[in-house]
Write the structure tokens for this entry.
Amino acid sequence: MLHPTRRQALEQEPGVAGYRPPAGGFDELLDEEGRVRPVWRHFVEGFAGLSEAELKRRTARGEQYLHDAGVFFRRQGAEGPGGRTWPFSPVPLILHEGEWRRLAGGLARRAGLLEAVMADLYGEGRLVAEGLLPAGPVAASPAWLRPLVGVRPASGHHLHFIAFDVARRPDGEWQVLRDRTESPAGAGTALETRLATQRVFQELFQESHVHRLAGFFRAFRDAMGALDRVGGGRVGMLTAGPGGANYFEHAYLARYLGFMLFEGEDIAIENGAATIRTVAGPRPVGVLWRRLRAGRADPLELDETSAVGVPGLVDALREGTLSAVNALGSGVLEDPALAPFLPQIAEAGGGPAAGSAEGWWAAAPEPGPRSTVPAWTSGALRSEPVTLRLFLARTPEGWQAMPGGYARLGGVSAEDPGAVADIWAVSDEPVPIDTMTARPSDTYRRPLPGTLPSRAADNLFWLGRYVERAEAAIRLLRALHLRLAETGSRDNPLQASLCDYLRDLPLDPEENVPQGLLRTLDSALVCASRVHDRFSIDGWTALRNLNEAAEEMARTARPGDDTARIMTALLHRLAGLSGLVHENMYRFTGWRFLILGRELERASGMASALAHFADPAAPEGALDLAMEIGDCTMTYQRRYSLGTHRNTVVDLMVFDAMNPRSILFLLERMRSLIALLPGAEMHGVMSPLARAALRAHAAIAVETPETVDKAALAALGERLDGVSDLVSGAYLT
Amino acid sequence: MLYDIALSIRQHYDAPAAASRQTLRLLPPTLADEQHVVAAAVDVSPPPVERRDRRDFFANMATDLAFGGAHEEVVYSLAARVRREPGRASVPESPPVAALAEEIAAIRSLAPDAPHHFLAASPRLPEEPAFRDYARAALPAGAGAAEAVEAVGLALNRDMAFDAKATEVDTPALEAFRRRRGVCQDFTHAMIACLRTLGIPAGYVSGFLRTVPPPGRPRLQGADAMHAWVRAWCGQGAGWVEYDPTNACLAGDGHVAVARGRDYSDVAPVKGVLRSAGSQTSRHAVTMTPVGEELP
């Protein structure tokens, strides 16, 4: 029995002064006598030792981490269901590992029950035949997918990764509020919240014997890998793409788990088996962790209006060549019309009597009062009702629960989504420090090459092109505004010529930070967002910040010196981005496409700029301008200690093998990159792409500075367009 | 009655279609006491790279196809000889509409023929109050389930005009119903939606109609393309009753069934996903002729 009057005594407890849970409920922190529960004692002591200012500083640190993570995981404007829309509460919900094991054990039994129900709904149909489940609600559920009836999952099981929303009743017993069997979101949120909380309570976390999360994820990753029947060893994650809910969590988890992130168009079904469309041709895939509603997974047999699925996916499941996790159709278990029948199904299967205390895990979800936990907001501890999101993964040893998850504090309505807090399962003894990296006992598996999906390659290639295009535009705009600052007018032949050139790109020279530049930067960002799992995290952050800065500056820029300085600042940010990408990105096929895009764009831009500004008819000062936008002024001054002369400028910018921006240097780089792409040479025969690159290279190599005229440069531009088309044709479509 | 059925569907793509997958539901099945298939085959041109036949959930014959290279046109041709048994001569005895719910609840089965599948909303037929109001108005007081089926069918046949230009294959059922115009698909969808609001399980049948009627009988609407009609469950005793709302008649020996489902999405004759930039056009041609009779 609860003693609300005694609860008042807890004000004396140091560290939790003023914390007043409501009378009559179950509080996680304080027992009925108002004493701190033993499992919280260490945390409360540490917490009490921190001043309010220190707590605020530390919470800000955790929030900064989440913000930075959010910058990476969520594009601006793409908040919605995938965005973090609730605040972070740094005080974790603490459970003793014994209590957590009891809870996890109950949930594992419920998972087993759900698996059995699903196997029956898609198999024999005995539950309906025996009257344990009415046929009507099953038939009426849009998530019961008829094409999957009779399809036995290749793995032998339907459910592999599920979640539960759980709360504690006033009597201290747990209850399940929702089964999440379709494709539960939030595992990434759990990881993020853990990392943020660790930043707030670094020492306390270290001392508290908190069970680590990595072991759970590693077990799930290995179990997924073991489902593979086609031998590729690849685990794919099927997402609805950047337009879908939770895309950024998908990219985050794919990266964390080492899974490949696919969209529907990356996968084709051939002869009853799933293959990935990669730059090296089709490659088999045997396991898909689907992160979209099952109905959308196959427009041919399921929801015909789905634009994000894989036509024929059900066929591969029927053939048993592919494992989908969870099996398609698992959403039927979330149907609220079915849940009331779970207790009697459990009882008929030999479980505890329906309604008995030990059968809490099989009970139908029922809303009721929830237990309360301390939330630390605006400098004080407040008590909030709590719901736990807990995750379970199937492993060869059975269901394994994540020793954590996250807690939702406060209301659960759409208007008040509540705050999120970490969940600590703490041991009395030190816990093993676990990470995702393989243990020494694990067999070493080298990731298989050649699995870059064509869609990812396409986005990397264009990312390279757009970033380079933006850089060229910024250099041109800076050149214009530097001259404007000097002369104060656009009315001289050189500036007029430069404005003509800009208009062709098209960049409106009347705009200080032209819309054309902002569009190019945004295109780069869109490409980067679609290769989230492959692009450097810091690179993404830098690109996003660059976009924001450019948009911000566009609002205030004034012509002349101000805009010139803005362009210099943007150029420095771009250089930072390039540095991050080139220092940190793994030198593999994806990187090659990125660099190929950059070199191609740069060579093409250089050819067109020289055609315009190194033309004998160009106005005075055009040669200096050409070198300025080609970033060659310094080199030129060192090499040729005389005034600018057309042939020496062309020599430096077209032929100089030591100049990394010379056209010949870029063409050579492109050739060597292309030679390393899949299928560049077959039985000693060059691919059409390799030949086109050689032709472009040779056509310039045989020229001299005297003979490289406007026509030769225009011809090079056309050849480079041809190379780009061949890249698309050979790898990207 | 023994029939020869010939169907050709010609699909033309403005831009050559790249790799694609299709599922055909064109082959009539043998159905006990209703129809017996003597022979039936579907020919596909150009030849697909993959082709497999299977039965779908509702026991329809489904043919899965995959095409490899680019093509501008595909032709699907069906040739079949089917013996059709005489249908019901009249509406059978059936329990009152209000008594159906209890009979349905007693059926502990999710077999393809179980009425449960045909009561709730389905992909192309979300619940719409407009159907409920219309169906209630058409329902005679104290009607048996089968009488209710006929009454709703007659009402729709009276109120909706057959107009091949009014709707497309993807026009929502409610829109066609609001306009009171459409083809057999629209009549059938409207009738199914109405019957479900009354608690009568109802589904979609695709099939063929005899092209030229027997002497002295009118030519039926919808004989120029694949046809559609309604299948409604009228209690354990009466079972399934098939009614053709486009022609206001019970499905009889002039109707040969191909596929059954909850609505068109379960039975579409050609269902496919292709990657193509352009639009596509499709032409159908059907004949269903009694064996031994010549086409005029």
